[in-house]
Amino acid sequence: MSLLTGVPLSYVVRNLATRRATTLLTAGGMALVVFVFATVLMLSEGLRTALVQSGSADNAVVIRRGAQTEVQSGVERNQAAVIESQPEVALDGQGRPLASREIVVLISLPKRDSSGPANVTIRGVGAQGAALRPQVRLTAGRLFRPGASEVIAGRSVAGRFQGAGLGETLRFGQREWRVVGLFDADGSAFDSEIWGDAEQLMQAFRRPVYSSVIVRLRDAQAFDTFQARLAADPRLTVETKRETRFYADQSETLARFIEILGLALAVIFSVGATIGAMITMFAAVANRTQEIGTLRALGFTRRRILTAFLAESLLLALAGGAVGVLAASFMQLFSLSTMNWQTFSEIAFGFRLTPGIVAASLGFAMAMGVVGGFLPALRAARLNIVDALRAA
Amino acid sequence: MLLKLIVKNAFRHRLRTGLTLLGVTVAVLAFGLLQTVVGAWFAAADATSRTRLVTRNAISLVFPLPLSYLQKIRAVPGVMQVSHSNWFGGVYVSERNFFPQFAVDAQSYFRLYPEFLVEPGEMQAFLRDRQGAVVGRRLAQRFGWRLGDTVSLRGTIWPGTWRFTIRGIYRGAEAGTDEGLFFFHWRYLNETAQRNYPRRANTVGVFILGIDDASRAAAISSAVDALFRNSLAETRTETEKAFQLSFVSMTEAILLAIQAVSYVVIVIILAVMANTMAMTARERLAEYATLKALGFGPGFVRLLVYGESLAIALLGGALGMLLSFPAAEAFGAQLASLFPVFSIRPETLGLQALAALLVGLIAALVPAEKGARVNIVAGLRSVA
């Protein structure tokens, strides 16, 4: 560094240390900006992970044509049989198709912290339902028995809703349902669901039709043929999507909202922080006019003065950025639950810090430092030696 | 003399003051916009009437109620009028053009919602046309619809392509009335459902009850729910406000985050402003010492610093508040599908002014004390 700038790095560091209050305030402001910036990125990433992990590439979701979500959809029994019997559908060891006829409804449940009710997704799954989602693991209790009024609850539902814990009972559809097991779906959207036996739930809710059919394809490439065949079948009025695509589509609005909000905040905040850096650096230049004159007189070139002040500004920003990212990393301990507008149901997701986000946040901080520091550094470099030495 | 000094001082460092001013302006503007977003969230709940109750299926909103409940609900003492509506959830050209559509029992519905103002002639035309629709003024503007235009919606809950003719455009009676809704005849929906989906015919999404006495809302609600306890479709009745707030509470986390962020903006600008004042005071220690040597007391110096800080903060605040109006206009137009009502509330302006005032005061706190306590001899010797 010292070779690059000519002005020793220790000079830069000491300058910042001398004006402690100003340095702290400016870096603190930047740290806050970077904190918010990183947090929003982490939220986007958390939502993305929750949805990416919900789908697997070789699964396909079949819903009624035009329905955007499983809740709106309806697939008749005979249609479900046709879908399952397609040649592209993989078979299990006993020659049965790897498919699950599912019913998805929303029920309104009171939260444990009594902050009002929220819509929870109840999914009735077929016998192969769990096998189609390898990310779902039972963590406590056992699976529901087919034919019984039993359900299992996802990790983030069990803790947050009344009656959804292990051994407790939920009341809906004129029946009591015992929670006999808890499952962990590895941060995916299933963590926010309650699962039961599809046939039992259909009776309870008096819905004679399924919401969707999920199938495992023989291989991921078979999707296009499968989709085309179902679309051409006159007995069916369905739409086929890859499971990964299906879940990404479902949260498009929420993801876009978070992105727009994050972008707007980043722009507004960075204006404030850049101004802060600029003020600090202008003051630093003004206060050190004589010093700069001396440096120039000693033979340091304009370019080297410019780099020294830019380095000072960058260091300031980097310190703020590091503190901001560090603070943001603690947000990983929390998770957020909100309603997904498109499915109308609760979804819980965490903040996820990735190396990419760390890099982006620090890059953002450095950009603020460069932009804020450039004009003042330019002024420092342009000072005339004689005038600068005379200034008092 | 004091005022003159303050103004002169404030604009001595034109660049620094200008930058700080810009910062405060942007922060107050951002704060106002974020608060307006939060307010827009509550707009639907604020526009509700205390004499309207909403009855829905107790399981959740996605389950319908049988139309036959209508007569039973009407017989409950205290219920003056009953209407019903269904969420249609159709798509106009593309998913991005989202707006709410309701299939309603037209006559009773518009009686219950006097805030939707429709010209009598248009109302007549709407009632006569089975496929007629009444749309909000803002919605009509958004898509350039005129009376007599045909609009096709692609059904998601009710499959198929649905054609409507716009017969009326309603205005809101108050500023907070949602002018972005689309109403059509429930009859039209039901006739088609009877043909194509007989299982879902004769069902409604929610009943809306007009009651005579708002103070009896709780009693009437439980009387209605008691009617249908242990039936195939149990009901939950609540005031219209509670019904709307239940949507707000589902997105509470986002709301809290926006609110928190709006205060963070103010804290950030406070740091910038405090920095400016700290630098200013440090540079002027010698001046303050001079003033004191001339006989001015510490109170005068304090006033000088506070005055300068407040002048910058309040000027920036005022600029930010002024800019909020065009900004909200532009923002609201962009997010019309998300926030049908997007206007700056008086409370928001008050909060903006308060934020600017607090930033000005707090930023001057430490520098003012430093200036006031400066030792004359040490101050005169000090070099910035």
Quaternary form? heterodimer
Number of DSSP-assigned strands of chain A? 12
Calculate the terminal CA-CA distance of chain A, rounded to whole Å: 31 Å
Q: Can you give the mean pLDDT of chain A? A: 87
Per DSSP, the total helix count of chain A is 13
Number of strands of chain B: 12
What ranges of chain B have pLDDT less than 50 throughout 5 or more consecutive residues?
none
Largest sheet of chain A: 10 strands, mixed
**Spatial gap, N to C terminus of chain B:** 26 Å
What does this structure look like?
The complex is a heterodimer of chains A (about 400) and B (about 375). By secondary structure, chain A is α+β, with helices and mostly antiparallel strands. Chain A contains 13 helices and 12 strands. Chain A has helices at about 1-5, 10-20, 20-50, 75-85, 155-160, 200-205, 225-230, 245-250, 250-285, 290-295, 300-330, 355-380, 385-390, and strands at about 60-65, 100-110, 115-125, 135-140, 150-155, 170, 175-185, 195, 210-215, 240, 335-340, 345-350. In chain A, the strands form 2 sheets. In chain A, strands 1, 2, 3, 4, 5, 6, 7, 8, 9 and 10 form a 10-stranded mixed sheet that branches. In chain A, strand 11 and strand 12 form a beta hairpin. The mean pLDDT of chain A is about 85. By secondary structure, chain B is of the alpha+beta class. In chain B, strands 1, 3, 4, 5, 6, 7, 8, 9, 11 and 12 form a 10-stranded mixed sheet that branches. A two-stranded antiparallel sheet of chain B has the order 2-10. In chain B, helix 2 (about 15-40) packs antiparallel against helix 11, helix 2 (about 15-40) packs across helix 13 (about 300-335) and helix 13 (about 300-335) runs antiparallel to helix 14. The radius of gyration of chain B is 30 Å and the shape is elongated. In chain B, strand 7 and strand 8 (about 160-170) form a beta hairpin. Chains A and B meet through helix 3, strand 2, strand 3, helix 9 and strand 11 of A and helix 2, helix 10 and helix 11 of B.
